[in-house]
Amino acid sequence: MIVATSERPDLAAVTARWRREAFARGRSLSEVAAAEAATAAGPGPMPRTLVLLAGGEPVGMASLVAHDLDPRPDLTPWLAGVYVPPHARGRGHASRLVAAIEAEAAASGVATLWLYTRTAEPLYARLGWRTVERFAYRDEPYALMRRDLP
């Protein structure tokens, strides 16, 4: 089952911990948790974080956000924060979460969705995303990818 943190704000503590571990190591957990709580309380389509539950336990997350890459404010919206904890990987959870975000974006009238990644380009390519640019950001190589939605 996939739920939004706006429906289950109790999951914001888990998503904050995951987001800090995977993407925001320079920020404090309380800072990330405050941002997650604000997202969970938001009524609009963005930002929106979805959590995949298996047996009632959270096993992954993904977000739909208006902006995710500071040097590219011209691009919007973004698939962001896709994360599955190590113990739950290899079961198709990330693919299900990506599809759920794509469906939410399409239902909101989004024509094109963006993401950037250092490590998961093959996964996204298998899911129909295409690489449009390679670039360096914070001294790391990334791929900028897009997905045109039906």
UniProtKB/TrEMBL annotation:
Pfam families: Acetyltransf_1. Residues 2-150 form the N-acetyltransferase domain. Keywords: Acyltransferase, Transferase. It comes from the Bacteria. This is GNAT family N-acetyltransferase. The lineage of its organism: Bacteria, Pseudomonadati, Pseudomonadota, Alphaproteobacteria, Hyphomicrobiales.
